[in-house]
Amino acid sequence: MKKALLTLALAVLTLAAGAQNKWVAGGTGHFSHNLDKNAGDVSSDVVEWRIEPFVGYNIDEHWRVGFTVGYLYNHTREIDALDNLVDLGGKHAFRFGPYLHYNILRYNRWILFVEAEALFITVPKYMALANAFGIAHNPGAPGNAPTYDMKRTGFDFTVKPGVTYELSQHVNIDLNLNLLGWFYSNSKEIRLDTNAETTHSSSGLQLDMLESNLEEYWQNITLGITFKF
């Protein structure tokens, strides 16, 4: 019995050694606060943060496959058609799906990579400005609010580059550069009181390398950490 247990323990250790640095786990995160003013008055105030944990498996030194789950919170205040600052409250969004990671080249501890994601998105009930959806707002009608309850479902596919710095054999720091890449997005928004649907679809090459200030760049960079096992 002891011999069998010893053999089993040796087998497990051998497999673990052979799979060293094959499995990874980690996450990415982002925070931004965008405050726009016009003649000293706030025209929009948007606070956003998101976190996306992931797991993956390194097929070889270049390729990795995995799965990611994300949560995003957005709190928005916007000017309506009557120049009133309207608090639209918080919006919760969830994303999940597979990803494919490819290491393009390595220089010392630095690695340039590209990543493809296919993510399904759901945004439960949230408020939206009426005029933002082309809906007429009649200020003379009693009780006519300038916002409507909405929900959204969709699908996003993106291919974008990033940079990794290896802190140690088991820990990486990642910068996902959402400044350039190829994207495809398809989503459906539903106005909850009437069930009216609006479909949005877009695709193309994104190139945001000429932003006007550092804040614009920061909004398109996601910081992450990867643990290798």
Quick structural gist:
The protein has 229 residues and is mainly beta. The protein has helices spanning 2-18, 214-218, and strands at residues 23-38, 41-58, 63-79, 85-107, 110-129, 147-166, 171-177, 180-191, 196-207, 221-228.
The oligomeric state of the chains shown is single chain
Mean of all residue-level pLDDT scores = 81
Which strands sit side by side, in order, in the main sheet?
1-2-3-4-5-6-7-10
Strands, count: 10
Q: Write down the CATH topology.
A: Porin
Radius of gyration: 23 Å
Q: Tell me the span between the first and last alpha carbons.
A: 30 Å
Order of helices and strands: HEEEEEEEEEHE
Helix tally equals 2
- Sequence stretches where pLDDT stays below 50 over 5 or more residues: 1-18, 136-144
> Biggest β-sheet, characterized?
8 strands, antiparallel, barrel
CATH top level class name: Mainly Beta
* Structural class determined from secondary elements: mainly beta
Outline the structure in words.
Strand 8 and strand 9 form a beta hairpin. An 8-stranded antiparallel beta barrel has the order 1-2-3-4-5-6-7-10. It is mainly beta. The radius of gyration is 23 Å and the shape is elongated. The chain contains 2 helices and 10 strands; from the N terminus they run H-E-E-E-E-E-E-E-E-E-H-E. The two termini are 30 Å apart. The chain has a single domain (23-228), classed as Beta Barrel (Porin), CATH 2.40.160.
